[in-house]
Amino acid sequence: MENARTSKPDLGNEFKRFIKFFLGELKPKGKVITPFNGIAAVIIGVGIVLIAIRFIKGLGAVTNLSQDFPWGLWIGFDVITGVAFAGGAYVLTFMVYILRIKKYHPIIRVTVLNGFLAYVFYAGALLLDLGRPWNVVNPIIGNSFGVSSVMFLVAWHFLLYMLAEFIEFSPAIAEWLGWKKIRKFLGALTLGAVIFGITLSTLHQSGLGALFLMAKGKIHPLWYSEFIPILFLVSSVFAGLSMVILEGTLSHKVFRDRITPKHHAAHDDIVMGLAKICAGTMFVYLFMKVLVFIHGQNWPYLNTPMGYLYLLEVIGLVLIPCLLFINGLKTRNLWIIRGASVLTLIGIVFNRLNVSIIAFKWNSAAHYVPHWMEIWVTFTVIFAEILVFRWIVNRMPILSAPPEWAKEETPAKEVQSKIKVIKEQEEWKVTAS
Amino acid sequence: MKRRSFLKTLGLASGTLAANGTLRAAEPVEGTEFKSVLVDTTLCAGCRGCEEICAQENNLPEPDLDLDLEGKIRTTSLEQWSVVNRYEADVSGGEVFVKKQCMHCNQPACASACLTKAMLKTKEGPVIWRGEKCMGCRFCMVSCPYDIPKFEFNSPNPRILKCRMCFDRLQEGKIPACVENCPAEAMTFGTRREMLDLARTRISEEPDKYVHHIYGEHEVGGTGWLYLSAVPFEQIGFRTDLGTTPYPQYTREFLYAVPVILTLFPAFLYAVSNATKRNSDDMESED
């Protein structure tokens, strides 16, 4: 506080110092020429060229999309699967800020950051896929609200959720820049943003499934049911958490020096906890899948090529990883759990691609196989996201501990004595930090 | 509290938006009725004059009229918004010609799928596309049960193209070009009610000639184009498995759940977070 006060008079100096600090932070940390950076440079470089071709010549120049398959990899994987993978953020914010399970606190920031970046980049990928992206503001600014469209809901929710995630994450930015007062203000917004974010997530995770409800008759009966939205929502829980497990494993290798010792010690415990939730939700999901299967009277389809795909998905990539999670928990074997989470993620990719591409018009003569350029652009998006993630993690207190001054502002106790009188409203502010 | 009222307003705003998610197109607007075309497939001789006039009217490339229709079922395309297909069937002559184009559904899946109202069910009946609104997401293509909307994949400024039921001509008081130019008078234009009456009259006058079904009367909630046939419709390329439920209904329940969740969830979450806070009064600072 004192610092802030004394430095107020010479704002000019303060500003200069900030610019200097900011420019310094822009420079890369660590070695620039590494194998990873080399690969990333090639992928992103070529990717930018492909994206340029796409905007000059149209979608057909780089994709295998057709009149029969209007949606391909960029929607089926980048958006539909990517958003499911980003589901960890809403599940963890629920546990940490709503249920106040302190155990998961060390990984909340990195998960929210991941979720936020995932949305930014996958929404970005959506812009690549839009034929007339300059009209993307139309459903937002209100000159034509297509309110009967699930897509309208999804678009709005993407936008609002990005905002909510940004607010949840913003204290880390303030800590990085040393903006104490702003940090306090942003911290107070967290709970509101979390509540809003969870609500939005519930709706758009299921909304992505609801997009396919009108494709009735085009999607194989083993995958089409009126319960797609609920199945998408439930599977986003274990998809998101599996991603958190996998991402945590990688982060611990890559960002070893930035992780606090306390976090290190808690890591195994956190993974076990997440695995338990994964196993539980997967069990629920399987149960729903069976119900849908039986209600749909889908037995005759099982012994067909599509039926084998279905069995591979449900047994091989949901039931087996679910059992592996349980086994890993019993034997406290982290490697089994990590393996299970990888299998789960593959299963989610498979499921989302099945609904959006593979089982879509399964009986049509035309087929869709993504063009290598579509795959390349997808990798471009992923690598761009990783680079931004790395840049942020190496600078802001994401995995590392926040600065000392930020810690002081959190004690719930101190303020709680004050609020006996002005209960409700004050509590709202404090809980957030 | 400011923040709360902000959330509330936002929630209410999005809630009401979603609650209006029903299609007004369900019923004709007061005073106007949907326009409609009745196609009598027993009268069509397969001259494909309608394809030609359609191309002229909409500045599309001229269709290849020498094309042999035998054994070839064509779909509509970017260049051909209307096609005539030949089906072999158990009738005198052994063949039936069927014109295919946008069905101009009463409650179109494409229009309810459109988040910018670029795809619009006009009060006159035609379903039209408006480029200044469209963002090119192609959800209309995914949703359309008849796979009618086509997208210009090879253009940097792509359009969605399909039959517009000559909407501009209708505005001028004319009738669709294909209907006007059909030498066999296989098509009739009028209000949907009149066309259904006409179809029923024809069936009752010649009950042995027609199958007793008007395709489009109930399919996907009713379509603007209606068909009569001498043979079961599945034999001449019609989808008879689409059901009679209007397609927007399939997402309606989901959309109805939206305002409920948007308003109840935040309250619930806030309550839970308060409850857990009291349990952890002695909570230390969260780092």
3D architecture notes:
The complex is a heterodimer of chains A (433) and B (287). Chain A has 433 residues and is mainly α. The radius of gyration of chain A is 23 Å and the shape is globular. Chain A is built from 18 helices and no strands. Chain A has helices at 2-7, 11-26, 35-57, 73-85, 88-98, 108-129, 138-141, 150-177, 180-210, 228-254, 261-295, 299-302, 305-330, 334-358, 372-393, 404-407, 412-418, 423-432. Chain A has one domain: Formate dehydrogenase/DMSO reductase domain (Formate dehydrogenase/DMSO reductase fold). In chain B, helix 1 runs antiparallel to helix 8 (249-279). Chain B has a single domain, classed as Alpha-Beta Plaits, CATH 3.30.70.20. Chain B is an alpha+beta fold and 287 residues long. Chain B has a three-stranded mixed β-sheet with strand order 8-1-9. At the A-B interface, helix 3, helix 5, helix 8, helix 9 and helix 17 of A face helix 1, helix 3, helix 4, strand 6 and helix 8 of B.
Short description:
The complex is a heterodimer of chains A (433) and B (287). By secondary structure, chain A is mainly alpha-helical. Chain A has 18 helices and no strands.
Radius of gyration of chain B: 25 Å
In terms of DSSP E residues, the strand content of chain B is: 5-15%
Distance between the termini of chain A: 17 Å
Q: What number of structural domains do the residues of chain A give?
A: 1
Largest sheet of chain B: 3 strands, mixed
Oligomeric assembly:
heterodimer
The top level CATH class name of chain B:
Alpha Beta
Q: Which structural category fits the helices and strands of chain B?
A: alpha+beta
What portion of the residues of chain A fall into strands of 2 or more residues? Answer: under 5%
Q: What structural class do the secondary elements of chain A suggest?
A: mainly alpha
CATH architecture of chain B: 2-Layer Sandwich
**How many beta strands in the DSSP annotation of chain B?**
9
* N-to-C span of chain B: 27 Å
How are helices and strands ordered from N to C of chain B?
HEHEEHEEHEEHHEHEH
Give the chain pair forming the largest contact, with residue counts. A-B, 81 and 79 residues
Per CATH, the architecture of chain A is Up-down Bundle
